[in-house]
C-alpha cells in the first residue's frame, strides 16, 4: 500500500471519529435536557437535515428531529425544543445558513404574543429565503442586463470621437445660453415680473373662487333647509302635490282638446287658419292707411290742422250750448207771464 493511500485512510478515519463524537455529544445533550415537540411546515427545506440546530437569538434551543413530505408537496419539519424555552405563538421560523461550510439551521424570530406554543403544537409562520442557486441565477440575469445596457450605450454614443463631439456641443450650448441670458437680462427680468404679476392675479382669483364656492355652499345649505322659493320647491311636499295636481289638470285640458273643439279647429282647420290670416292682413292694411293719414280717420289721426279745427268746433259747440242754457230760463219766464196776463 502506498503512502498516499495510508494518508487518505487516516484522514477518513479522523473525520469519521469527529462526526461520531459530534453526533454522540448532541444526542447526550438532548437526552440530558428535557424537550417538547413543535412542528412547522416549509415550502422547501433544501440543505436542512436531521439534527440541524434550532436557533433563537443566536442560541441553540433545539434541533430537527424528522423531515417528511406532506400531501401538498410541502415539507413537514418536526423539531424538539428545550422544555425551558417557550416560543410565542406568533413567532416566525426561517431557514438560514451558518458558517463557511453553509450548514442549514432554523432561526426563530420571537413574536410579541403572550400565548405560547403548547407541546405538540405547530408554528404556523414560516419563510424560506432564496437559495444560493436562485441568487446565482438572478446574478447571471443582472449581468446579462448590464451587458445589453452597455451595448446599447455604445451603439447610441458611438466611439470616442462621438463622445468628444457631444461634450463639445454641450459646452458650446452652455456658453451660448450664458451669453443669451446676459444679453437679454432686462427682458428676462420683465418676463419674471410679468409672471409674478400673473401669479398674484391668480392668487386673487383663487380667493374669489374660494368665496364663490363658499357662497354656493351657503345656497345649497339654504336649499337643503327648505328656505327660499327653490328650497320650498325641493322640500315642501304640499307644493309638490300642488304642482302635480296642476300638471294633471293641464294634461286633462290638453286631452280635452278633441277634433270638434274650437281650439282644435284653430290648430287643425286650414280654412279657418286662412280666414284668420286674411283678417290679420286686412287689419294690417287699415293700420298702415291710418298711419299714412289716408281716409277721414287717418286724417284725424295725422293732420294737425284738421285736429285743431275739430277741436275749435267742439269748443264753439260747447259755448253755444252754455248760451242756450243761460237764456232758457228768461224765455220760459216771459212765456209764463204772457199766458197770465
From TrEMBL:
Residue span, Mce/MlaD domain: 35-111
Pfam families: MlaD
Keywords: Membrane, Transmembrane, Transmembrane helix
Record field: transmembrane: 7-26
Name under which the protein is recorded: Mce related protein
Source species of the chain: anaerobic digester metagenome
Amino acid at each position: 500500500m502506498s503512502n498516499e493511500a495510508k494518508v487518505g485512510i487516516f484522514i477518513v478515519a479522523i473525520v469519521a471519529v469527529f462526526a461520531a463524537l459530534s453526533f454522540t455529544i448532541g444526542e447526550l445533550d438532548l437526552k440530558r435536557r428535557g424537550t417538547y415537540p413543535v412542528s412547522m411546515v416549509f415550502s422547501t427545506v433544501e440543505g436542512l437535515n436531521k439534527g440541524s440546530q434550532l436557533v433563537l437569538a443566536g442560541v441553540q434551543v433545539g434541533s430537527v428531529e424528522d423531515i417528511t413530505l406532506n400531501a401538498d408537496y410541502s415539507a413537514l419539519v418536526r423539531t424538539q425544543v428545550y422544555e425551558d424555552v417557550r416560543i410565542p405563538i406568533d413567532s416566525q421560523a426561517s431557514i438560514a445558513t451558518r458558517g463557511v461550510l453553509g450548514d442549514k439551521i432554523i432561526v426563530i424570530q420571537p413574536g410579541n404574543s403572550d400565548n405560547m406554543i403548547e407541546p405538540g403544537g405547530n408554528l404556523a409562520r414560516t419563510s424560506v429565503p432564496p437559495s444560493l442557486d436562485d441568487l446565482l441565477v438572478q446574478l447571471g440575469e443582472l449581468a446579462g442586463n448590464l451587458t445589453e445596457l452597455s451595448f446599447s450605450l455604445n451603439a447610441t454614443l458611438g466611439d470616442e470621437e462621438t463622445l468628444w463631439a457631444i461634450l463639445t456641443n454641450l459646452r458650446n450650448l452652455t456658453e451660448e445660453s450664458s451669453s443669451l441670458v446676459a444679453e437679454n437680462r432686462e427682458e428676462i427680468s420683465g418676463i419674471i415680473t410679468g409672471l409674478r404679476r400673473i401669479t398674484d392675479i391668480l392668487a386673487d382669483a383663487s380667493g374669489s373662487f374660494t368665496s364663490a364656492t363658499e357662497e354656493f355652499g351657503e345656497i345649497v345649505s339654504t336649499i337643503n333647509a327648505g328656505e327660499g322659493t327653490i328650497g320650498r320647491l325641493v322640500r315642501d311636499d304640499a307644493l309638490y302635490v300642488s304642482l302635480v295636481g296642476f300638471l294633471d289638470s293641464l294634461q286633462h285640458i290638453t286631452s280635452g282638446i278633441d277634433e270638434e273643439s274650437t281650439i282644435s279647429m284653430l290648430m287643425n282647420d286650414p280654412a279657418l287658419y286662412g280666414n284668420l290670416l286674411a283678417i290679420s292682413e286686412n287689419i294690417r292694411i287699415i293700420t298702415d292707411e291710418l298711419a299714412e293719414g289716408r281716409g277721414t280717420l287717418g286724417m284725424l289721426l295725422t293732420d294737425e290742422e284738421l285736429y285743431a279745427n275739430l277741436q275749435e268746433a267742439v269748443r264753439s259747440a260747447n259755448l253755444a250750448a252754455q248760451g242756450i242754457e243761460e237764456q232758457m230760463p228768461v224765455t220760459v219766464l216771459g212765456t209764463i207771464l204772457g199766458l197770465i196776463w
